[in-house]
Amino acid sequence: MIAIENVRLFNELKESLEQQTATSEILGVIASSPTDIQPVLDTVAKNAARLCEAADAQINRLEGDGLRRVASYGSMPTPYNIGEVAPINRDHVGGRAIIDRQTIHIHDITAEFDTEFPQGKELQERSGVRTILATPLLREGDPMV
Fold first, then answer.
1. Domain extents for the chain?
2. Which of 36, 41, 92, 107 has the greatest number of CB atoms lying within 10 Å of its CB?
């Protein structure tokens, strides 16, 4: 029982240290580039991938009624190119996360093409991604522009 508790505490400590390291790296980039947001976005994408143990990560910015890719980390092809605007709707995971104002985690998007995410099929074919985690950045409950 003690060994199990020690493993749990060690894992919590490791996760906390990884989060603090990511935060420190992002704050360092902000301090060194106070007027240029791109290095900050690139660092956030890199650290998001690392913390989620993912191969890649993208950051999209809300622009009017669409999402514009502003940063990407990893070597997988992305469903949208940097600067390309994707519509916000419930037919793809990122759009639904914005509309519902909550994190959405899909373990296998291919199992949900017909029922939940019809637009996901086209995006999945372009990227090859099956597991998706989308979380909106909110300020006072509203998605940030």
1. 88-145
2. 92
> What are the tens digits of pLDDT across the range 45-57?
998 998 888 888 9
- Provide the 3-class DSSP secondary structure of residue 18: helix
Identify whether the C-beta of residue 101 lies closer than 8 Å to the C-beta of residue 138: yes
Q: Provide the β-strand partners of residue 142.
A: 139
The tokens for 33 are: 């580039």
pTM: 0.72
Whether the pLDDT of residue 78 is over 80: the answer is no
E strands, 7-131, are 57-63, 66-73, 85-87, 104-106
Report the amino acid identity of residue 39.
P
